[in-house]
Amino acid sequence: MAVYRRRTSLVAATSFAALAITLAAPAMAQDAPQQAESTAAETDSAGDIVVTGRFLDSGASSASKMDIRVLDTPFSVASYNNNFLKAIETTNVSDLYRYMTGIQRAGNTSYDITFRGFKTSGNDRNAILTDGLPGQSVRFGSPPTVGVDHIELVKGATSVLYGQAQPGGFINIITKKPKAQPSFEVSLRGTMGLGDYDRALGGLFSFDFTGPVTSDGALLARVVGEVGESRGFRRDSNEEPIYFAPSISWKPGDHTTLTFQGEYRYVKTHYDTYLVAPNRDVSLIARIDTSYQEKDDYLIERGAVGNFYLTHEFTDSLKLNAGYRYVDHYDEQNNFDLVGFGTGAAALTTVTRRARGQANIRTYSFGDINLTWKGDTFGVRHTLLFGGSGGKETASLNRTRFYNCTGTCTVLNLNIYNPVLGVVGSPQNYPLDSSATLANLTWRYTTQNSLGFYASDLIEFSDMFKVLVGLRYADERQSIQDLRVPAGVTYKKDTKWLPSAGVLFQPMRNLSFYASYATSFVPVAASSQDTTGANPFKPTEAEAYEGGVKAELFNKRLNINAAYFDIQKTNTLNNFACPIGTCSNQLGGERSRGFEIEFNGSPLPGWVLTGGYAHTTARVTQSDVPGQTGARLTNSPDDAFNIWSRYDIQDGALKNLGIGVGVSYIGDRAGLLPTALVDARPAGGTLPLPSYVTVDTGIYYKASDAIDLTFKVTNLLDERYIESSGFSGDIQLVPGTPRTLTVTVRSHF
């Protein structure tokens, strides 16, 4: 058996030693010329790398839908700009999470994220937004960074502005839009594995062209795309991505801008259900490159997106914003799925599988329109927002094959530590369903219609005292039916008033003390049922309290945000087996509370850094499942820390050289909630996942005015760790990527 090994102590010691070297670098450059503003690598209009930026911006409109400073927002919000994306040098948004305080990746889809202890999933469409609207072009692969201008992270309950959402927060991806200044950039990226797992090898070509179409600059265009092929460190893993995103902006006048944007994304990958933990024991996990899928198992995803955005300034104080997004998504898989473990003595050595086929079609059609007015009433300043949003989400989930090889069937079983693949043929060689009535071949069709109206007002009684209040009315309607079973349609309707409020005290313009209250809700799925087959369940609700301080120090060279939060979630469902299948009751509750400290700045010319620490206590507060009350929420570490530091040499023979080091610490977590009580302890444990530390490093070199080189080593110390438990807990555990080298050549002109 391959034993999962912890090497946290060694990694931690070496990590902070490496970090100290990087942080010491600026001390050796004290003679470098001083600059008036903060420092970081940024591309100017001619494509040259200049030292003028920072990793985080001072504004982030996602928290309020208003153009106000982060200091004027009584919630936790951060805006990670393109400098940050290029410094980390990654191709997917999810790879950035380890350097974002308070969140982390929690599964193998783009929607699997843990925000302040609360996990989101594929049913939470507002967990990850694009330009403020839901719907991703693909679900399993995280959005590519090539089309991202910046990323806004908002933490806490946000249903007032965005409707149904989990209470931990959300990510808003702001895409690249056309610019008036011509810019052309192409890049070649090569990746290879280093060390014990050197199978990884790949290449990616990307491009980004923008500029005016007409001589008067009224019509602008941009085209962004990438194409590549790679194989991962796991056996048979591969990926073939295609991404293409054209956009055009038209300014019919000085006060109006219309932007049309398209996106096409295609990804073919080797289908992978990752690792398993026999007896819910992480020490029994096989080598991290072990695969239980056949070589030809595949997953294909295709997404086509159309976006429309309008901004119009009626006056200097009255502005209209409108947006619409349509997503047509298709995914198809043909594979062998993991089901569970063998019985008896084989429970520790055998994994069982099923032959699986699936064809899914999803659509998202959502829009938002709002008016912002800035003015005075009786000497009191207001920034007033009125708006409405809504749309429709549909999902056609068609099981084309669902053959369970269980009981006396053992032909699809594999040894956990020495799986012999290539002898069972294709999934098409097996029956459609192991059930005599083909009951498992479901074809579920669901619709979700959302409508909401919202208003908020930032009231400035003085320069020192401000209040932000908001209110939303939400109407959510669902339907579900099985297209293969003429049993009718099940409907569910929920309405909700959602308030929020915040107070800011600003004794100085660069210092804010704040306190806030916010609410959120998630309607219970229409397919849920109690023991009578009915669905009387109310939406899951949450209340969030937060207080903190935000400061811009040393002439804006250092930003510090500190926050304490307490989020209580009620009306959660407990699921259990019953005579009619899976039943639920609404007796559950969860709570997450803790504090976060985040910093971002450039203490010296050429040196930029960002990081943070989060302490999060996320627990089950109420459940009728034995052993669950008091249990830790899954994939949520009590403690997490991150820092990324980059220094660009400002003068001398090494002027064009930059060095970066990042350290990320994730504390121990629970992979599963308890499901039963045996001898006063949860049966099999809760799959405790050990803590880990990863170190990344990069070398940046400007070879000429038009060419930049980046050498990035991810997981420098080759730490072995489990990134997250999956949907089924003790199966689908996602291993962390071992040491990998990425070389990028970027040309801009």
Please describe the topology of this protein:
Blueprint: H1 8-24, E1 41-43, E2 49-51, E3 76-80, H2 82-88, E4 103-105, E5 113-115, E6 118-119, E7 128-130, E8 148-155, H3 159-162, E9 169-175, E10 183-193, E11 201-212, E12 219-231, E13 238-253, E14 256-270, E15 275-276, E16 298-313, E17 318-341, E18 350-377, E19 380-404, E20 414-415, E21 443-460, E22 465-482, E23 490-508, E24 511-522, E25 540-553, E26 558-578, E27 581-601, E28 607-622, E29 639-648, E30 657-666, E31 669-670, E32 677-678, E33 681-682, E34 688-689, E35 692-702, E36 707-714, E37 722-726, E38 729-735, E39 740-748
Parallel strand pairs: 7-9
Antiparallel strand pairs: 1-2, 3-8, 4-5, 5-6, 8-9, 10-11, 10-39, 11-12, 12-13, 13-14, 14-16, 15-38, 16-17, 17-18, 18-19, 18-20, 19-21, 21-22, 22-23, 23-24, 24-25, 25-26, 26-27, 27-28, 28-29, 29-30, 30-35, 31-34, 32-33, 35-36, 36-39, 37-38
